Amino acid sequence: MANSGKEYEELVRDIQRSLINAGNVPSLKNINIEKNKKIKDRSGIDREFDIYWEFEIGGHTYRSVIKCKDYSSRVSIEKIDAFISKTNDIPGLNLIYATRTGYQSGAKIKAEQHNIQLLVIRDQQEQDWTDEDGTPYLKTINFNIPFQIPPKIFSFELNIDQEWLKSQNTYTAQIIGNVFKTEKSDSIFICNVNNNERYSIHNLSKLLHKKDNNMKYGENAYTEEIENGHIENADSSIKIKIK
């Protein structure tokens, strides 16, 4: 089945539209992209072009036509000559040629002389990943980044220092059970006097990995003995000795 080139024309058109959208130029107005556009030349003859692209910037309208050729070989100088001949009688056009396979050296020279922009639009190939000397470009970067999510605390228990509890008259076991009931986790603090540590229960989850390096993903249990410590509210007006 012969290659009509229609799919390639649509590919080039879609890429052109994507580039315009990605550019996000505020002053670019009245953008119009058409496929199989017919334009009259000086003789009044309709000339059809694969893709027509028109936009306005700074009060001036720019018109471009794109010739799309899905060839299996490089574009020759004769093809460039034919494009020049076709557009000679239509003033004010920017000329663009697009192909998958590249251009012969003569075609490149002729295109440069006539300000024709040459595009190669195709899927990437292995040779795209080497420079002119054959040195490979960096193609893949693999990152191995350790990532830790702070554990979520589902259950939290404190051991009240029973000797301290008996030695004071302010708090009973029942009062202690309710004293922090209305406080948020970031307003309840654990103080380890010997280690000069003070952290909220909310921040405890972030410290658990430091306190236990062997903690694995999944359900864990952590126990810590504090010789000289207490649990308190934010302004330290309430202190309960723990151990």
How would you portray this structure in words?
The chain is of the alpha+beta class. The chain folds into two domains: 6-124, Trna Endonuclease, Chain: A, domain 1 (3-Layer(aba) Sandwich), CATH 3.40.1350; 162-242, no CATH class. It contains six helices and nine strands, in the order αβββαβαβααββαββ. The protein has helices at 6-23, 77-87, 105-113, 162-167, 173-179, 201-211, and strands spanning 29-40, 46-57, 60-69, 93-99, 117-120, 188-192, 197-200, 229-233, 239-242. The chain has a five-stranded mixed β-sheet with strand order 1-2-3-4-5, with helices on both faces. A four-stranded antiparallel β-sheet has the order 7-6-8-9. The radius of gyration is 37 Å and the shape is elongated. The mean pLDDT is 85.
